[in-house]
Amino acid sequence: MKQTLTLGSVDITRVLEYTGATRSPQAMFPELDRATWRAHQDWLTPAFWNPPTDLLQTCVQTWVLRTADETILVDTGVGNHKPRPGTPAFDRLDTDFLTRLLAAGVVPEDVTTVVLTHLHADHVGWNTRLVDGDWVPTFPNATYLLTRADFEYWNPAGLGRPRLAAANEGVFDDSIRPVERAGQLRLWEDHFELSRGLRLEAAPGHTPGSAVLSLESGGDHAVFVGDVLHNPIQIVAPDLSSCFCEDPPAATATRRRLLARAADQHALVFPAHLGGGLAVEVAEAGPGFAVRRWGFER
Fold this sequence. Notes:
The structure is a single chain. By secondary structure, the protein is of the alpha+beta class. It is built from 8 helices and 17 strands. It has helices at 25-28, 34-44, 97-103, 121-124, 148-154, 171-181, 233-236, 248-265; strands at residues 4-7, 10-21, 49-50, 55-66, 71-74, 113-115, 128-131, 134-137, 143-147, 185-188, 191-195, 198-202, 211-217, 220-226, 268-271, 279-285, 288-295. Strand 4 and strand 5 (71-74) form a beta hairpin. The two termini are 14 Å apart. The model has no long low-confidence stretch (mean pLDDT 94).
């Protein structure tokens, strides 16, 4: 499967950290009507669902965007050696992610910007790595971009009361605080312009500070949506929010808004946890949306 495509003047590469099974459809989407699932299960198999186990298939991945002047990472996965007692699948992983990143042509010193779509354990882990017993920034020359809303919500010293506090235990201290101490963390609100054609905007719901990165280059459009989508069933049934969403109604509103814009712009949608192709192009269809095609190349 092709792991890189080019949109305009931007090369986009997927770097996988982890693939495996996760929850059943009903556990992942508490409001799921099983009849809706049955109507679409054929095309969701096997890339996104394993019928014998009734478990969804997922992946954790980083998107690498390269322009003439920048190397940008969108999310940094789980990380190695991170204690995650609330999420056993992510507890003290030891993967070859940095080797895979090198195979994609990127050494940590090359990275100019790290975009964090939100502050969950499987999106910020490689922000830091363990060196002589201390957590230090993995990408020493990068600016790490995070919304102020998520920084304040997940900060143990703050006033946020996350539903998923147990699953995110320790994440702020080992993956955010060291970057802040190093002077590499930049907080933003509402929207942030990275460079010409690359724009961050708030996309609340999954977390209060969830964000998406929009790309426009050479007439091509794309949007990196983080966890706005966990599974393609949310394209055809966009009112489904995952069990991980802090504010499901807000997550639904954000998802509908972004899918409508993507359909209008013929933009490729790059979710955080979907395999089965690098990206998806969507179209409006009745009360929801439809998969126009999986985007392997343009």
